[in-house]
Design goal:
Elements (H helix, E strand, L loop, with lengths): L23 E7 L3 H11 L9 E7 L2 H9 L5 E5 L7 H11 L5 E6 L5 H6 L4 E4 L4 H16 L7
Parallel strand pairs: 1-2, 1-3, 3-4, 4-5
Helix pairs in contact: 1-5
Length: 156
């Protein structure tokens, strides 16, 4: 993710107080592979980096479930497996950006760093290379949540 205006925006001060007062953010994880979904949850954990909020997960193994979840609202970040079958995360990312008015921030998991140019085509807000580096993954998702909380629009 490159530098953007407002990238230093912070989450509400209530996010830094007791766990009971910390806001909860919803991360959708899409992959037909159980291991990928488990690896994402493990890398991110239950809290945003720096303890700035709690994370809850919605897992989707197929496109229909993903579309229902995103259409229903309440998703802050969607992490989409670029290698998912039969429909990959990059195509879904592009579809969501065109069809969902309040589209969540989207991060696409890539098998190769060299495929970032494809993620640009998909209008993804961020990318992560799989297998995941936990520190990079946590930082990326924290930044996407900060941007959403600050009202910075997602890529269109």
């Amino acid at each position: 993710m490159g530098e953007q205006a407002g990238a230093g925006a912070s989450l509400p001060s209530s996010a830094m107080s007791s766990p009971e007062a910390a806001p909860t953010y919803t991360v959708l994880v899409y992959s037909q592979r159980d291991k990928v979904r488990a690896d994402v949850r493990t890398a991110l954990g239950r809290r945003l980096r720096g303890g700035q909020g709690l994370l809850e997960y919605v897992e989707c193994t197929d496109v229909d479930a993903l579309l229902l979840a995103v259409d229903g609202g309440g998703i802050d970040v969607a992490i989409l497996d670029g290698e998912a079958q039969p429909t990959g995360g990059m195509g879904i990312s592009r579809q969501l950006k065109y069809e969902i008015t309040d589209c969540p921030s989207i991060c696409v998991l890539l098998a190769r760093a060299d495929d970032r140019w494809l993620a640009t085509w998909s209008l993804a807000d961020a990318t992560l290379v799989y297998p995941l580096d936990a520190l990079t993954a946590a930082g990326t998702v924290t930044e996407l949540v900060r941007e959403r909380a600050a009202g910075i629009p997602v890529r269109r």
